[in-house]
TrEMBL record:
Protein family per UniProt: Belongs to the class I-like SAM-binding methyltransferase superfamily. C5-methyltransferase family.
Chain segments annotated as transmembrane: none
GO MF term set: methyltransferase activity
Location of the active site: C90
Class in the EC hierarchy, top level: transferase
Protein name, per record: Cytosine-specific methyltransferase
UniProt keyword annotation of Endoplasmic reticulum present: no
EC number: 2.1.1.37
Recorded catalytic activity of this chain's protein: a 2'-deoxycytidine in DNA + S-adenosyl-L-methionine = a 5-methyl-2'-deoxycytidine in DNA + S-adenosyl-L-homocysteine + H(+)
Signal peptide: none
Keyword ATP-binding: no
Length: 372
């Protein structure tokens, strides 16, 4: 990268967006989250690679964070921050969160994120969230948010919806990305890189979100490609977080009877199709609910590590906590590889960098050997 892009991260969670931006050359100087398990994950991996250096991890609610407290721990000052990234909790806007929007306290955290952006006055920022944000309250919330993030016209705002499978991520997951530029730059939408070559099967949304994708030579990245070299789960295995749930004979029997792509009526998770990308990872909470989908060949749920692969986390990335804590971090995350693609796109179009990383370079840099 031609420029050292000092970046603040909020709602960092398990670190997908942080890791992706760091791999693309951004300098993450500050991470923050309210979840202690996520903060420990960030600390565990801090400094693990030359591009993901050691930096402050603040474990607190964004409500309690001030620009002054950020400047104190980073040594930066107002107007000296290059970029801000973050995705306020999406459960308030998602189908699984019953789409309560601003009626849910988590939904109001979007305005706290806006408060921080205004206070640190960066060159630009990125806001990430679920696609359901666009339609809740008849679309009025989304319109209000985009307008608010222009900060009375000081930032040019570009907003797009992405189907991440179209960008070589082995998972169907639709996200909204909003980018702001104080320089008045309108960042174009990323062009798709991958596309499917088959018709939709059953309830699986295998059709591409873009007509242009069908003309691409690269097919979607499949579940089989990601999981084919994984050993069966073991407490003493060589993979971090590769420990599965114990299933009763009744559940095993049910899972065995599922067809590829079929949903289990009890657990409401789907049997993965080996020749297609995964369904979106289900998050859950500390009360439960977070689980992997059913493995395509073995009658069990995929492990947190297998789900992490579907989210393009490298195998060296360690998650702190037990199963439900890890799957929540994994499910809430932006896939690291997609974060890297977004970062390279921003670096090129907002910061004028001409030596950014492409898909294959990011796969190699993140050490995602299971995608090769």
């Amino acid at each position: 990268m031609q420029k050292n892009i000092n970046t603040l991260s909020f709602f960092s969670g398990g670190g997908g967006l942080d890791l992706g931006f760091a791999a693309a050359g951004f300098n993450i100087v500050y991470s923050s989250d309210i979840d202690s398990y996520s903060c420990k994950t960030l600390e565990l991996n801090s400094g693990a690679k030359s591009y993901f250096g050691k930096h402050p991890v603040v474990c607190d609610s964004i409500v309690n964070v001030t620009p002054e407290s950020i400047f104190e721990v980073t040594g930066l000052s107002k107007g000296k921050v290059d970029f801000v990234i973050g995705g306020p909790p999406c459960q308030a806007f998602s189908v699984f969160g019953k789409r309560k929007g601003l009626e849910d306290p988590r939904g109001n955290l979007v305005w706290e994120y806006a408060r921080i952006i205004e206070g640190v006055d960066p060159e630009g920022f990125l806001f990430e969230n679920v696609a359901g944000l666009k339609s809740i309250h008849g679309g009025s919330l989304y319109k209000e948010l985009v307008e608010e993030l222009s900060f009375n016209g000081r930032y040019a705002v570009s907003a797009y919806q992405y189907q991440i499978a179209d960008y070589g991520i082995p998972q169907f997951r639709s996200r909204v990305i909003i980018i702001g530029s104080k320089r008045g730059v309108k960042v174009p939408k990323m062009e798709p890189t991958h596309g499917g070559h088959e018709e939709p099967v059953g309830m699986l949304p295998f059709a591409s979100s873009s007509a242009a994708v069908a003309e691409l030579s690269r097919p979607y990245v499949t579940v089989q490609k990601v999981l084919e070299n994984m050993p069966e789960p073991s407490l003493e295995g060589s993979f971090y977080n590769h420990v599965g749930r114990e299933h009763s004979e009744r559940i095993v029997s049910r899972y065995q009877g599922l067809e590829f792509g079929e949903r289990d009526p009890k657990t409401r998770i789907n049997k993965l199709h080996p020749d297609r990308p995964s369904f979106a990872i289900i998050v859950g909470s500390d009360k439960g609910g977070g689980k992997g989908h059913v493995h395509p060949y073995t009658p069990r749920e995929v492990t947190p590590r297998e789900s992490a692969r579907l989210q393009t986390f490298p195998d060296w990335w360690k998650f702190h906590g037990n199963g439900r804590h890890v799957i929540r971090q994994v499910g809430n995350a932006v896939p690291a590889l997609f974060g890297g693609l977004l970062a390279s796109h921003v670096a090129e179009h907002l910061f004028g960098c001409n030596d950014t990383f492409g898909y294959d370079q990011l796969v190699e840099r993140l050490e995602l050997d299971f995608l090769l």
